[in-house]
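The passage that follows is intended for readers who have already worked through the single-chain material. We present the inputs for a multi-component assembly, then the predicted structure in tokenized form, and finally a short commentary. You are encouraged to pause after the input and sketch how you expect the pieces to fit together before reading on.
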Amino acid sequence: MSVKNKVAVITGAASGLGKGIAATFIREGAKVAIADLNLEGAQATAKELDPSGKMALGVAMDVTNEAQVDTGMAQIAAHFGSIDILVSNAGVQIVAPMEDFDFGQWKKMLAIHLDGAFLTTRAALRFMYKQGKGGAIIYMGSVHSKEASLLKAPYVTAKHGLIGLAKVVAKEGAAHGVRANVVCPGFVRTPLVEKQIPEQAKTLGITENEVIKNVMLKNTVNGEFTTVEDVAAATLFFAAFETNALTGQSLVVSHGWFMQ
Ligand code: NAD
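Having made your guess, compare it with the prediction:
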């Protein structure tokens, strides 16, 4: 099982989990397109992870924009000669109580998480089917693909939705050797989570330490954050697995916060 010489597209890879997955995949010999809304960040990450310039490519891609996704994917296929793995990871968080949730913010959340997953999957599948050598699609879900939390209506809705999408892609992709799975992390201290700690403290009227202990890590088995490396290892497992035996599945990496 290996990703050596495979071409992986990772969205939202200029930061956090995507960046960590990119580092792991490059270390394992894959060529990686770092696709991000933030082109400067994507290019800087590509340079940082691969000073040789051969294994990583920074690409501008707003995953909610159909034309940008299709153009970006074509650019990546032309540059590296193939598209074998998609990690649909780009995401943001916006928290508010249901009764105050702004409709525009709701739509923005669903666009990034669900339209983004749809558009990048469709573009990647078109290359994978044409190439005829299979492929792996991995969605960045969350414990919130299985559980709910206060203040996160669109996030929980979208992350649950990714499991449905993965199951359909698993069924449709099977004839082409394309597998689709979901990685579901618990809290990881990326910029996305660092931002939430003071926001939740303010909304819930508690201290930041209380948010960490009593909200984020309360139900873990040992009060620990999941790490970027933990999530990258689970993603690598799905990416490298070679047969349709492992498809349409979701794997929770959360220090036991959620157990199925
Ligand atoms: P992050 O903020 O560190 O990184 C997110 C990246 O996505 C950024 O580089 C940003 O520029 C990019 N991005 C945002 N909107 C985009 C768009 N429209 N098109 C392309 N790129 C865009 O966040 P992270 O914690 O690394 O989160 C990555 C994914 O992991 C998200 O889907 C998130 O929901 C999921 N996740 C995170 C955690 C956690 O605890 N950090 C837990 C479970 C799931």
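Commentary: The pocket of nicotinamide-adenine-dinucleotide is lined by residues 11-12, 14-18, 36-38, 41, 61-64, 89-92, 112, 116, 140, 142, 185, 187-188, 190-193 (CB under 6 Å). The chain has a mean pLDDT of 97. How closely did your sketch match?
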